[in-house]
Design a protein that fits this description.
Family: Belongs to the GART family.
CATH topology: Rossmann fold
Structural class: alpha/beta
Pfam family, one: Formyl_trans_N
Strand order of the largest sheet: 3-2-1-4-5-6-7
Number of strands: 7
Mean pLDDT: 96
Number of domains: 1
Order of helices and strands: EHEHEHEHEHEEH
CATH architecture: 3-Layer(aba) Sandwich
Radius of gyration: 16 Å
CATH class: Alpha Beta
Low-confidence stretches: none
EC number: 2.1.2.2
Function: Catalyzes the transfer of a formyl group from 10-formyltetrahydrofolate to 5-phospho-ribosyl-glycinamide (GAR), producing 5-phospho-ribosyl-N-formylglycinamide (FGAR) and tetrahydrofolate.
InterPro entries: Formyl_transf_N, Formyl_transf_N_sf, GART
Number of helices: 6
Length: 196
């Protein structure tokens, strides 16, 4: 059985595109069935449409509060019979109720070697700390930001002369390789969220 996946984006959707590309392989265990954005102008929506994938836009400002907005996202996910959700540059914090409803079925990719550098500006923070390496992490989403159990990580060296942009470019390339691998592991049931 192929697992049906929704990818939530806010921008160009480069990680979403890497998932879509991986899912084209006949033996890949997941299919991207929906791409949803909180921004109508997100470039990734066009990429998804061109790939024949259903798209949706759910903007917070169209709802009285975050809970109602997340209820609309949930409605789209159920309407499209989604099994797993992948956050890929989705720049909005989801409500604890939504996260709990999708617990164990929602992944995020974060541009640091968690638990280091939760939140934003991870590349500049790694450089400022004088770290020798940096990278990215795919993790299960829990209500606390960037704190869920880790599925997979990829490391990249920090090179002399790196600035946040050069480091970000190398980390992004690692993300594009890591996220499809991690999604496949979860879709096959090789990795799952269990009670501690």
């Amino acid at each position: 059985m192929t697992v049906r996946v929704a990818v939530l984006i806010s921008g160009r959707g480069s990680n979403m595109a890497s998932l879509v590309e991986a899912a084209r392989e006949p033996d890949y265990p997941a299919r991207i069935a929906l791409v949803l954005s909180n921004k109508p102008g997100a470039g990734g929506l066009e990429t998804a449409s061109e790939a024949g994938i259903a798209t949706a836009v759910v903007r917070l400002r169209d709802f009285p509060d975050r809970a109602e907005c997340d209820a609309e996202i949930d409605r789209f996910l159920r309407e499209h019979r989604i099994d797993l959700v992948c956050l890929a540059g989705f720049m909005r914090i989801l409500t604890p109720g939504f996260v709990q409803a999708w617990e164990g079925r929602m992944l995020n990719i974060h541009p640091s070697l968690l638990p280091k550098y939760k939140g934003l500006d991870t590349h500049a923070r790694a450089l400022a700390a004088g770290d020798a390496e940096h990278g990215c992490t795919v993790h299960f989403v829990v209500p606390e930001l960037d704190s869920g159990p880790i599925v997979a990580q990829s490391r990249v060296p920090i090179l002399p002369g790196d600035d946040p942009d050069s480091l970000a470019a190398r980390v992004l390339a690692a993300e594009h390789a890591l996220y499809p691998q991690a999604l496949a592991q979860v879709a096959r049931g090789e990795v799952r969220l269990t009670e501690a």
